[in-house]
Amino acid sequence: MSVHTARLAALRERLRADGLDGFVVPLTDEHMSEYVGSYAQRLAWLTGFEGSAGTAVVLAERAAIFTDGRYTLQVREQVSGEDWDYVPVPQVPVAAWLGDHAPAGARIGYDPWLHTAAWVDEVRAALSAREAALVPVAANPVDAIWADRPAPSPARLTVQPDALAGASSPEKRATIGDWLGKQGADALVLSALDSIAWLLNIRGTDVAHTPVALAFAIVHADGATDLFVAPDKVDATVRQHLGNAVRVRDRADFAAALGDFAGQRVAVDPAGSVAAIADALVAGGAKLLPARDPVLLAKAIKNPVEIAGHRAASARDGAALCRFLRWAEETCPAGTETELSAAARLLAFRQEGGRLLDTSFATISATGAHGASPHYHVTEASDAPIRPGDLYLIDSGGQYADGTTDVTRVIPIGAPTPEMRDRFTRVLKGHIAIATAVFPDGTPGAQIDGFARRPLWEAGLDYGHGTGHGVGAYLSVHEGPQRIAAPNYPGGQSLEPLRAGMMLSNEPGYYKPGEYGIRIENLVLVEPRTIPGGDPDRAMLGFETLTFAPIEREMIDPALLTDDELSWINGYHAAVTKIIGPELDEDDRAWLMRKCSAVTR
């Protein structure tokens, strides 16, 4: 019996002891985070799945794991098909599956600190047809059987200086206080870790790759704030930075504090906070004001200081990537390197700059067939040699005090096939279509997503992920509320109007199962555009490309590019040499000049 089969059996035994017929295990924490600390990795511990999004449902006789199109291949490699059914989302939501498979009259457990109130309502409605009940648990049964579960990180908070943040915490809190006044609310509960970090100009290392600290916050109408965090995480420097208007309270006291708002109107984000928060407020007599976290949009629209910081971080990061790409081109054809050794070499190049604080996510170092899994995560067990004939995909980023980066490049190990060049060029055409798009202010990302897909659609091809996600300023590499994706993207983020100052990724791709994957990713900034002869009353927007590193010329089929597309790639490479060249030594600069020479027909 495998370790994960034994864990599934142990959970079922625990559920029987607790009087439950099933239980739902999401990949999140009490802050609804995308990336979570090791203490909250319940899904990975139970199933073996190491992706960044997923949910498991365990019934007495059946179990299912729910993942989206990014993880179709990965989930089958990591999770036993003998123990688990593979269920695609959003095609089959958890609620619908439970509505079809939960036994009549069953008691299905859930942890109210890991699900939103909307999710609870949806699942309850689906179960009602089977006269089954959704039951909140006081203690998570996975934790009860996870004997060596890690403790939450004890790392201390750090201060994000105003000189890098571009605005002080008192200024930000005053803005939120004004928002509360306009809403007629007395307080706002914040549970999103990056919202708290941005609002208070603090950072932490409690979650890998994301510089946040485990905390909750309650902001009052006068801007005064209660910060609930483990006391040992706050030193004298942080206390001085926070000032008297921020009261530091023990994180363990947060749930009880929610009962102190009887008769008061409290704003809570229903999409970004867990059901337990709303339940505690209502139980204490508070009046709930469902409202989107007002920090989200303020955080998404970068100020001039944050934009300047990102440009500096991007140039530094691009130089490290260029040195890596030269190393890979010269070294990998020998067949002596692997996915892990290549990722380690890229990390070393970034570290040599002396400013890297962390990677912004686990590097996707994928050769050959592994590249066909968009979010492939290399492990010692899966580590593959990089061999001639492969396409090697490297998707990576860095966390710097002045910015967060995310970039993907693909290089051929040896000569690419005509099909590889065709697919790569179509992906490049889609990338250029986004980079050069011009659109009215307020256009949602859903209306732009198809620009990137058209060159692939014309050949009967597509890719199974969004085209772009928001990016934080020394915060989360995946940041809302904006996104470039199809209109039905979960959470409605692709319907968020794009606004000047937002940063997003531009990353179309193509994936051939069992053979290779292609993705070209740069970060872009939404900025105003002036269109000669256009309606003077219609504000227009476009994208400024922020990421600079060569796009592999040997993969491009110039015959597929229009004159304007040829002009774009050559102009982009000219900018790469201008911005990155000064960051390199003479030999690396000479290599870069060759890689960025003009593409011609």
Automatic annotation (TrEMBL):
> What InterPro entries does this protein's entry cite?
Creatin/AminoP/Spt16_N (IPR029149), Creatinase/aminopeptidase-like (IPR036005), Creatinase_N (IPR000587), Pept_M24 (IPR000994), Pept_M24B (IPR033740), Peptidase_M24_C (IPR032416), X-Pro_aminopeptidase_P (IPR050422)
Name the family.
Belongs to the peptidase M24B family.
**Species this protein is from:** Sphingomonas metalli
Where does the Creatinase N-terminal domain lie?
A: 7-138
Tell me the Pfam families matching this sequence. Answer: Creatinase_N (PF01321), Creatinase_N_2 (PF16189), Peptidase_M24 (PF00557), Peptidase_M24_C (PF16188)
Record keyword Ribosomal protein present? no
Q: Which GO terms describe its cellular component?
A: cytoplasm
The molecular function terms of the Gene Ontology recorded here are: metal ion binding; metalloaminopeptidase activity
Domain named Peptidase M24 C-terminal is located at 540-598
Q: Kindly provide the name given to this protein in its UniProt entry.
A: Aminopeptidase
**Alphabetized UniProt keyword annotations:** Aminopeptidase, Hydrolase, Metal-binding, Protease
Keyword Methyltransferase part of the UniProt annotation: no
Q: Which residues form the Peptidase M24 domain?
A: 310-527
Q: What lineage does the source organism belong to?
A: Bacteria, Pseudomonadati, Pseudomonadota, Alphaproteobacteria, Sphingomonadales
What Gene3D superfamilies does the record point to? Creatinase/methionine aminopeptidase superfamily (3.90.230.10), Creatinase/prolidase N-terminal domain (3.40.350.10)
